[in-house]
Design brief:
The protein has 214 residues and is α+β, with helices and mostly antiparallel strands. Helix content is 24%, strand content 34%. The strands form 4 sheets. Strands 1, 2, 3, 10, 11, 12 and 13 form a 7-stranded antiparallel β-sheet that branches. It has a two-stranded antiparallel sheet with strand order 4-9. The protein has a two-stranded antiparallel ribbon with strand order 5-6. The chain is globular and about 70 Å long. The two termini are 25 Å apart.
Length: 214
């Protein structure tokens, strides 16, 4: 797969497999991007530990993507290439373990994190020095917090939302998976913003039908 691609999610599936539970997750105040981000990285993560459960990536919403919009004219003026910008960001925005340290009876891992605290700060990363002048990412590109092209749409109560389907895996009991999912969801809802409206439903495709985005 190309560098930066989302790792594939593999779930055993056949034509007879249908979700045992669905969650419609929406908000009248949060954006589609924020709703999808919370669903994928908080709600889904809180449910995948339930024994016998399988949860594919959600439908709807806009997957978050940090974009680097290159200005080809400025690149030519500075005698730089796209590879120069990519290399500068990859070499300076790193998170990796560097060792451990002990405080009393406890030992803690130490990670080196050189990734900027804000997305806009990526524009300040240096690329190279030309004729004594430091050229930064922001001189030839613009880094912004955006999203991937939207491929499907989910509406809940007329509001663009996110749909998360719950499957049972293998020989797991359907009742135990549904019960475990509902219990886990009750705990997860205590940790996410109250701006989300989370509605559960047994399979009813007429309620939550993802649409292909044109």
């Amino acid at each position: 797969m190309p560098a930066g691609a989302t790792p594939p999610l593999i779930i055993q599936y056949d034509a007879a497999t249908v979700p045992v539970l669905q969650y419609g997750i929406g908000s009248t105040t949060l954006s589609e991007q924020q709703t999808f981000d919370i669903t994928l990285n908080q709600i889904r993560v809180g449910l995948v530990s339930v024994p016998g459960i399988a949860i594919p990536f959600p439908f709807g919403g806009k997957p978050r993507l940090v974009s680097v919009d290159l200005d080809t004219r400025k690149l030519q003026e500075k005698n730089l290439t796209q590879t120069d910008v990519t290399t500068a960001i990859n070499n300076q925005a790193l998170v990796f373990p560097s060792g451990t340290t002990k405080f009393g009876a406890l030992q803690y891992p130490i990670d080196i994190n050189t990734f900027p605290g804000k997305i806009d700060n990526l524009n300040d990363l240096p690329i190279k020095v030309v004729d004594g002048a430091q050229i930064r990412v922001g001189d030839v590109a613009q880094v912004r917090d955006g999203y991937d092209p939207q491929q499907n749409i989910v509406r809940q109560d007329g509001v663009r939302s996110t749909l998360m389907s719950v499957f049972k895996s293998g020989s797991a009991s359907t009742l135990s998976v549904v019960s475990g999912a509902k219990q886990a969801m009750a705990n997860v809802t205590k940790t996410v913003t109250s701006a989300l409206q989370i509605k559960s439903s047994p399979i009813n495709r007429s309620l939550f039908a993802p649409q292909l985005a044109g």
